[in-house]
Amino acid sequence: MDLVTEAARALVGVQSDWVEATHPVEASELRRFMHAMMDPNARHRPGYTGPRHDMPVAPLGFPVHAYRRAAADDWDPIEGHGDPEFDGESRLMRPHLPRMPVKLRGVLNGGYDYEFFSHARLGERIFCRSAYRDVKQRQGRSGPMVIVTIDDEFAAGGERRKLFLCTTNLILR
Amino acid sequence: MLKVETREPPVRFFEDFREGQDLPSVTRGPMLVGHQVRWAGACDNYESEFHHDEYIAKAQGLPGIILSGPLMASWLLTIVKDWMGRDARLVRFADQNRGSTMPRDLAHFHGKVKRTYEDAGRAYIELECSITNQRGEVTTPGSALVEMPRRGAGA
Which of these, B97, B102, B95, B81, lies nearest to B12 by C-alpha position? Predict the structure, then answer.
């Protein structure tokens, strides 16, 4: 059974526009992120100044997880589980990419490759653009699976678009 | 009362590492659903219900709740930064979510210096790193490339 349809293949190479995270980097977000990661580094704490950063900075991987539900978003994403087309991958993290039409329900994160350039700073705006790099079918231990490869760039606002990081993410369907 | 130490790691230099060197292993756990819930809250991401609802996890064919791969990878990344010191610059990091981490599993973090080299006047260290569970299964293999300060090179 070919799970990678022409419609899915047609999305390879499609790149989104730059999309801004819901709000600039907030101190309360950094606090929760530090606690979740058990990151003891003082450079993420309010009031920090040091030789390399003159203000608190976000953990390096933070921009990947900075796309949150907007206050005006009244749609409960968990409702998506009742939708046979629910892909689970494009709501919060990449709402700016078109859905990858794959007729499998499960979604697992296969891992990331990160290339880091700079920290996002407290109060800084985060922008992301994404592109489908590849989609292919493989036979897994429990049946066929589809591997979707997505490239993301995360950058600051402004004309220069200072890069925070680039990632390549494997999504397993 | 839970005491959380907040600090920066000490400065370490390129000269402090050699190829083949094992880095000090770190153990965390037992892992709890609470760790996952805290991560979901930090990311404001509750969509993948198999991360916190055992009924749904089993209905999807999983053995039970599994902790988020990006959570485990983020812990590994944090420990890599700690190993390499305050002034190191993480250039690249990669992780694979190869095996599941479930509630009550232990997570052992391992690292080894794979290569040390210089390029265009900069000093780099390549690391192999991983998370294994209490059964010795590698759940999260990874790698990192770190630019290191040189001893005596000044700030």
Answer: B81
